[in-house]
Specification:
Layout lengths: L12 H16 L8 H30 L3 E5 L3 E4 L2 H8 L2 H10 L4 H6 L4 E3 L3 H15 L4 E6 L7 E5 L2 E5 L12 E2 L5 E5 L2 E7 L2 E7 L2 E13 L6 E11 L8 H9 L12 H30 L5 H4 E6 L6 H12 L4 H11 E4 L10 E3 H7 L1 H21 L4 H7 L2 E2 L2 E3 H7 L3 E4 L2 H11 L1 H6 L4 E3 L6 H7 L2 H11 L20 H26 L8 E6 L8 H17 L8 E6 L7 H18 L8 E5 L5 H7 L5 E4 L11 H7 L3 E4 L5 H8 L5 E2 L4 H10 L4 H7 L1 H8 L14 H7 L8 H20 L1 H13 L6 H13 L9
Helix pairs in contact: 1-2, 1-4, 6-32, 8-10, 10-11, 10-13, 12-13, 19-20, 20-31, 21-22, 21-28, 21-30, 27-28
The structure holds pyridoxal-5'-phosphate.
Keywords: Allosteric enzyme, Carbohydrate metabolism, Glycosyltransferase, Pyridoxal phosphate, Transferase
InterPro entries: Glycg_phsphrylas, Glyco_trans_35, Pyridoxal_P_attach_site
Protein name: Alpha-1,4 glucan phosphorylase
């Protein structure tokens, strides 16, 4: 497919250089000598776009002509990171570019690093969506993403005097070479207004009048598969003023409209913000559904078989309005009966649940929902009524159960309930998470719809997280077992026969050292601190959240530091503890933890007495591109959430794939990592999820018992408030209170002793180099199970019923 005619620009180095110089002048309007790194990035990006355009068109035409079933993945987040490097790698043209640019005195790496991260997401959920797109295209599966083209992605984080400061992110500042605006396919989305009822030929019809319209303009981003001829599409909607008249003041209307695709997760502490979030959700869903149905109609002439040709997946509950929106289109536009429309809707839609934390389950007040989306609200009411009637038949007289399961109750619309009732598949994201859904959180629903529930353990694309992020490790693996693992990651198990091999072990150690040197350089540039690259790099990077327990990590470091200061017989192997985490702007407690980490770092890093043993580093602005430098450099992966709280985790998988050993609780996918590597290649500690859930259920935990009876615990907890840190007296009081008077909701004090113990084992084991490297290699070898290729094949086979396309020609 590639390499015909003028597309031959990547076929050899000389042609590449020639084309590059020619295009640079044309695109940037300056000579090569005057060009900046960004000009060079822009030029190379354009060349790649041109190179793939014919294949992109061919993929779309192929999909149309074969009538193959398509899957559409709807997600409020896509955490893509940078795209150039990944595209070059997947297209197999990275080497040509690297060599050609080098001849011109340009470093490809620098060019790649000038790209802004596309940070259209918070964390795990958004990164999962990005990994899934990579796997869909790499497996030749017809699957596309739908999202929102936020003008500002997740905020940029600065640390100022130890505190998080948020700056607006500006990824589109220099334009975006990867996107294609398609104004010809713009779609109108309506809000507000009133529903009119019309009796027509014995049929009750509904029409919404005096709506306020917003135009959704698609921007398409190509999703390039690894060495395949498939280029799928990520379609991001931009909100723009519509040409239809409105009663509003024109400037007010423009401002309100553009706000819809301005920001990821606007502040929703007030009604205005809540309305905006709900607007975003419906905007995404309505534009996508109208678009999908238009396309389907154009190719098939009718929508009676929609569910046989289209699968729509909703990533968490944010896009759950896809259910009533599909009903609206089928009822009001296609004039179907309720029964027919409902059958098609259920068969088309599937849903992934990402959390059991009750505060994270979306519930919308009726007073906000109903006026903003009057027709959609009517449909949700009707779905609810019919569902409750079914419940009544099955559970006559059980008012409590029916109220608990209802979609609308206490003037709230429960989005997870709507998702379960209106879809044919509900999956959790790790075995334990799915079991908790089935047996506890969604038990009533599981009993009512047992066959809808299933598990799909998350995965990550090993192409970005190993091949691209860690080329040093990738080439060592290629030398040892060949490069088949890139397309069939299960083949990584062939490494198992090398784990006792002294030469291979030595090479693995060298790669790790090289990656630690790279990260150390970055740390020095950001913080001015020199870290010892022979020390253990012990890393916790993820969003900051109480349940993820960065606090447990901090208290353990405080304990180590106390011991080192006071007990001259106590010694440890040198450790560098590395943190990276953004806190939600309105999450007061999480921000206190960031300040605490930085206060601890300040104290420890400036203490000459312990300096050669202990350092603490907080890396600001944790994001995909920074993560690509962190995972390869880690020796120890901290996955220490309170058991039962982390649905899966995917950071744990990225660490494992890069040879870090997990210190973790029996939570989320840690459990499956343990199953893959075996007990002796992972460090497990702490309460089990059974124990945690039983405490929740029966009570009986008293954090003060641990405070009073363990001197180590007592000491570090007191140090939060007794003037030990040079901060305002009450700075860390909220943390102190959470552990004491609020009875330590996340069992930090309960687990601290076993966490200290497990770290003693880590400390000893690391010094047994042979054993440690064996552990590290085992982790890499068994990481194949956690490729998103495996996950996506399971979704494709079990839920979406889609097949991979034959070679596109
Ligand atoms: C993988 C990833 C996450 C998710 O990490 P968890 O440890 O699973 O919470 C969050 N943010 C970024 C940038 C990631 O790459």
């Amino acid at each position: 497919m590639y390499g015909r005619g003028e597309k031959a620009m990547f076929s050899n180095k000389e042609i590449f250089k020639e084309t590059f110089l020619e295009k640079l002048e044309m695109l940037c309007g300056k000579s090569f000598k005057e060009s900046t790194v960004r000009d060079q990035y822009h030029t190379l990006g354009h060349m790649v776009r041109e190179f793939i355009s014919a294949t992109w068109i061919a993929t779309n035409e192929h999909n149309r002509s074969t009538h193959a079933k398509q899957v559409y993945y709807l997600s409020i987040e896509f955490l893509l990171g940078r795209m150039l490097g990944n595209n070059l790698l997947n297209l197999g043209i990275r080497e040509i570019c690297e060599e050609g640019l080098l001849d011109l005195g340009i470093s490809l790496q620098e060019v790649e690093e000038s790209e802004s991260d596309a940070g259209l997401g918070n964390g795990g959920l958004g990164r999962l969506a990005a990994c899934f797109l990579d796997s869909l295209a790499s497996l030749n599966l017809p699957g596309h993403g739908y999202g929102i083209r936020y003008k500002h992605g997740l905020f940029d984080q600065k640390i100022v005097e130890g505190y998080q400061v948020e700056l607006p992110e500006q990824w589109l500042r220099h334009g975006n070479v990867w996107e294609l605006r398609r104004h010809d396919q713009a779609i109108e989305v309506g809000f507000w207004g009133e529903v009119e009822t019309i009796h027509l030929n014995g049929r009750l019809d509904f029409r919404t009048v005096s709506e306020e319209k917003i135009t959704a303009v698609p921007y398409d981003i190509p999703v390039v598969g690894y060495k395949t001829d498939t280029i799928n599409t990520l379609r991001l909607w931009n909100a723009e003023p519509s040409p239809y008249p409105t009663d509003k003041n024109v400037m007010e209307y423009k401002r309100e409209t553009e706000a819809v695709s301005e920001l990821l997760y606007p502040d929703d502490t007030h009604d205005e913000g809540k309305i905006l979030r709900l607007k975003q959700q419906y905007f995404l869903v309505s534009a996508s559904l109208q678009n999908i149905i238009q396309q389907h109609r154009a190719h098939h002439g009718h929508v009676k078989d929609l569910h046989k040709k289209v699968a729509i997946h909703i990533n968490d509950t944010h896009p759950v309005l896809a259910i009533p929106e599909l009903m609206r289109i089928l009822l009001d536009k296609e004039k179907m009966s309720w029964e027919e429309a409902w059958h098609i809707t259920i068969e088309t839609i599937s849903y992934t649940n990402h959390t059991t934390l009750s505060e994270a389950l979306e519930k919308w007040p009726v007073r906000i929902f109903k006026p903003l989306l009057p027709r959609i609200y009517m449909i949700v009411e009707e779905i609810n009524e019919r569902f409750c009637k079914q419940l009544w038949k099955r559970y006559p007289g059980e008012w409590d159960r029916i109220k608990q399961m209802a979609i609308i109750a206490d003037d709230l619309v429960k989005m997870a309930h709507l998702a379960i009732v209106g879809s044919h598949s509900i999956n959790g994201v790790a075995k334990i998470h799915t079991n908790i859904l089935k047996e506890r959180e969604m038990n009533h629903f599981y009993k009512f719809y047992p066959s809808k529930f299933n598990n799909k353990t998350n995965g990550i694309t090993h192409r970005r997280w190993l091949l691209k992020a860690n080329p040093q490790l990738a080439s060592l693996l290629n030398e040892a077992i060949g490069d088949k693992w890139v397309q069939s990651p299960a083949k990584l198990t062939e490494l198992l026969s090398y784990r006792e091999d002294a030469v291979f072990q030595h090479q693995i150690a060298q790669v790790k050292k090289a990656r630690k040197d790279i990260l150390a350089k970055h740390i020095y540039e950001q913080t001015g601190i020199n870290v010892d690259t022979n020390s253990i790099f012990d890393v916790q990077v993820k969003r900051l959240h109480a349940y993820k327990r960065q606090l447990l990590n901090v208290l353990h470091i405080m304990y180590l530091y106390n011991r080192l200061k006071e007990d001259s017989s106590f010694t440890i192997y040198p450790h560098t503890f590395i943190f990276g985490a953004k806190a939600s702007p309105g999450y007061y407690y999480a921000k206190k933890i960031i300040k605490l980490i930085n206060s601890l770092a300040d104290k420890v890093n400036h203490d000459k007495q312990t300096n050669d043993r202990l350092k603490v580093i907080f890396l600001e602005n944790y994001r995909v591109s920074l993560a690509e430098d962190i995972f390869p450099a880690a020796d120890v992966s901290e996955q220490i959430s309170t058991a039962s709280k982390e649905a899966s985790g995917t950071g744990n998988m990225k660490f494992m794939m890069n040879g870090a050993v997990t210190v973790g609780t029996l939570d989320g996918a840690n459990i499956e990592i343990k199953e893959e590597v075996g007990n002796e290649h992972i460090f497990i500690f702490g309460l089990t999820s059974e124990e945690v859930l039983n405490y929740h259920h029966n009570g009986g935990y008293r954090s003060m018992d641990y405070y009073h009876h363990d001197a180590r615990v007592h000491r570090v907890v007191d140090q939060l408030v007794n003037g030990y840190y040079p901060v305002a007296q009450d700075e860390f009081e909220p943390i102190y209170d959470s552990l004491t008077v609020q009875n330590d909701e996340y069992f930090v004090l309960k687990d601290l002793a076993s966490y200290i113990d497990v770290h003693e084992r880590v400390n000893n084991m690391y010094q047994d180099t042979h054993t440690w490297l064996r552990m590290s290699i085992t982790n890499i070898a068994q990481s194949g199970h956690f490729t998103s290729d495996r996950t996506i094949l399971q979704y494709a086979h079990d839920i979406w019923k889609i097949k991979h396309s034959e070679m596109i020609r």
